[in-house]
Amino acid sequence: MIDSPTKRATLTALLVDDEELARSELTFLLADHPDIEILAHAANGLEAVELISDLEPDVVFLDVQMPGLDGLGVARKLVERGGPLPYFIFATAYDQYAVEAFAVEASDYLLKPIEKKRLAQALDRARRRVLAPVEDGDRMAELLAQLQPASRGPSKLLVKHGSRMVLVDASDLIYATIEEGEISVVATSVEGLSNYRTIEELQSHLDPHTFWRAHRSYLVNINRIKEVAPWFKSSYRLLMADRRQTEIPVSRAQTKRLRELFKL
């Protein structure tokens, strides 16, 4: 029980994000809230589902955009399993998910980069919610049903090629990379610049089952990977199916996901 504003019951938390830097930043921000006990971190959706089932945290900070099983997919799996749900605080770099549906009692959301004031507000709501539990399954199922259309990617992407604006099928995108604030896109028929501002924003508009953040600077179409090449210190490089057969590094944090994708 909460006895006073300065004495609070401890809430256990799980942090889920495929970016190690994002998990570290959130850990740093949560240090200002001593009543939040971080039980564990998860780097992907599959790991999150198992940790949530094993540890039963009060609150789960869940990144929406992750390769493979994304944040919304994690919540769906837990709803399908039945039983008590944690209080979800979804995190997203793009506000297409910041809709009225998040007003349900089962969840909240934070926009990246996370602001201290907004985090404090979300935690206050989580404390009230966890200390006065109600059945969340129906509310969460309703939320996920409302968000389902937003998670589908567009069928076309705009690529700036010289003075031309070319529309390409999303499935024809081979990879995208960011350098000096510009996102370069390589598709089967054209190369050029994307009108998206960040890799996260581009990724949030694409099919999460097809497009994978293999490295902080690279987003790849897993159906356009031609070869997986072992690299030094148990790392890998991807040989893509573009005309230059571009080699793309797989970050250490994403090596486990690569093994899951291709059963390495």
- Report Rg: 20 Å
- Which CATH class of the largest domain applies here? Alpha Beta
- Alpha-beta content class: alpha/beta
Q: How do the strands line up in the largest sheet?
A: 7-6-10-9-8-12-11
Give the overall shape. elongated
SSE succession: EHEHEHEEHHEEEEEHEEEEEH
State which percent range the strand residues make up: 25-35%
Structure summary, number of beta strands: 15
By CATH, the topology of the largest domain is Rossmann fold
CATH H level of the largest domain: which superfamily? Response regulator
User: Main sheet, how many strands, which sense, barrel?
Assistant: 7 strands, antiparallel
Count of individual helical segments: 7
User: If classified by CATH, what would the architecture of the largest domain be?
Assistant: 3-Layer(aba) Sandwich
Structure description:
With 264 residues, this protein is an alpha/beta fold. It folds into 2 domains: 11-151, Rossmann fold; 156-262, LytTr DNA-binding domain (OB fold (Dihydrolipoamide Acetyltransferase, E2P)). The protein is 28% helix and 31% strand. It has helices at 20-30, 45-55, 71-81, 116-131, 137-147, 199-204, 255-262, and strands at residues 11-16, 36-42, 59-63, 87-92, 107-111, 156-161, 164-169, 173-179, 182-187, 191-194, 211-215, 218-221, 225-230, 236-240, 247-249. The strands form 3 sheets. The chain has a 7-stranded antiparallel β-sheet. Strand 8 (173-179) and strand 9 form a beta hairpin. Helix 3 packs antiparallel against helix 5 (137-147). The radius of gyration is 20 Å and the shape is elongated.
